[in-house]
Amino acid sequence: MTDIEDLIAPLVTFRRDIHAHPELGFKEHRTAGRIAEALREAGIEVTEGIGGTGLVGVLRRGDNPRTVGLRADMDALPIEERTNLPWTSTKPGCFHGCGHDGHVAMLLGAAQHLAADPDFTGTVNFIFQPAEEGLGGARHMIADGLFERFPCDRVYALHNWPGIPAGTIATRPGAIMGAADKFAIRIMGKGGHAAIPQDTPDAVLAAASLVQQLNTIIARNIPASAAAVLSVTEIHGGHAHNVIPAEVTVGGTVRTFDPAVQDRIEERIEQVIKGISTSFEVECALDYDRYYPATINDADAAMDALSVAAQVAKAKLAPEPAPTSEDFSYMLQARPGAYIWLGQGRGDGSPPLHNPHYDFNDDVMATGIRLHVALAHHWLGA
C-alpha cells in the first residue's frame, strides 16, 4: 500500500501548480482536467462534466454495499494575490485565497492511497466540486443527479481553518456555518438640483436613514440568544456635488443559523423599507437572495468524525459555528454527513481566508489525507 508520506512531495507540487493557475467558478477546466488525469492514473473511474465542471472519481472494491462521499471544492477567488511566493497566481485578479487548491490535493492524495489499499472494501465517491464561492456549485451537481448517479450513505467535506492550530481537527453536531443572504435596496426619488432640495425627494438622505435603521434590526428584533449578523457593505449613488441623485442603492449581507431568525430579519427589512418610503417620499425596491442555507451537520456523522479525527491528530469539539457560509450545506440537506475544519494556523498571525496574503499550509496536507482515508475506512467498516 502506498505510504501517505511518499505522496506528499508530488501532491505539494500538484497543489502549487493549481495555485499558480487558478480558475473561477464554473471555469475550472484546467483544474478538473488535471484531477481527472491523476485519478485515472491511480486506476479510478472518472465521470466529468457534472453540474458544469464538476467531476467524481469512483473507487469500488469487494461486495460491501456501503458508500461514502468525500468532497473537495476547486474554484479560486476574484482577488489579487499579494504573497510574492514562487507559485504566485499567474492570472491577475484571481487566486486561491481560500485553500481550495489544498483541498483538491488532499482529496486526490486520499484517492491515490485508497486505490492502492488491498484491505479496502466498499465504494468511495471522490467529489470534486466547482463554484463554491457564491455560485452554488454543489446545488448544480445535485441537480445534475449527483447522489442518484453516485449514491452516498454519508458525505464529508474538509476545509482548512487558519484560526485553529495546524493539524488540529474540529467539528460539531448541528450548525457549523451560517446561512448567507444578500440584499440590494434601490431607493428611487426623481433627481434634482442640490440647491433646491424642497423640490426633490432626497434618495441620499433616505439611504443614510435606511443604513442606520438596518443596523438596529439585530439588536432590537432578534433575541440575544440567537446568533445573527447584518452588515451593510455597499452604498452607490450620485455623480456631482450639485445634483441630488435620482437613485441610490444600498446593499449588504445577512448571516443566520436558524430559519425562523432568517425569516424575521427579512420581514423587518421589508418593514423598514416601507417606513423609509413613507418618511422620505421615495420608492424602494428590495432584492433579497437567500443564496446559501446554513450548514447543518448530522449529529451522528459529526461525532463519528471527531472520534475518527482523534485517531489521526488532535481533535476538538468546535465550541460555536462560524458566521461564514458554505454551499456544502446543500449536500448536507440531501445526505447525512459533516463539514470538518482542519487547522492550518502557524502561530504567527497566519493570514485569514480570503486575504490577499493567504496561502494553504502544505504542512497539514498529510493530516488531511489521513482524515479522509480514516473516514472512508470507518464508515465502510474496512
UniProtKB/TrEMBL annotation:
Keywords on record: Hydrolase, Manganese, Metal-binding
Gene Ontology MF annotations: metal ion binding; N-acetyldiaminopimelate deacetylase activity
Domain Peptidase M20 dimerisation: 183-274
Binding site for Mn(2+): C98, H100, E133, H159, H354
Cofactor binding, per record: The Mn(2+) ion enhances activity.
Organism taxonomic ancestry: Bacteria, Pseudomonadati, Pseudomonadota, Alphaproteobacteria, Sphingomonadales
UniProt-listed Pfam families: M20_dimer (PF07687), Peptidase_M20 (PF01546)
Record Gene3D superfamilies: 3.30.70.360, Zn peptidases (3.40.630.10)
Named cofactor requirement(s): Mn(2+)
Protein name, entry field: Amidohydrolase
First and last residue of the signal peptide: none
PANTHER family named in the record: METALLOPEPTIDASE, PUTATIVE (AFU_ORTHOLOGUE AFUA_6G09600)-RELATED, PEPTIDASE M20 FAMILY MEMBER
InterPro entries assigned: Amidohydrolase, Bact_exopeptidase_dim_dom, Peptidase_M20, Peptidase_M20_dimer
Family matches, as NCBIfam families: amidohydrolases (TIGR01891)
Biological process, per Gene Ontology: diaminopimelate biosynthetic process
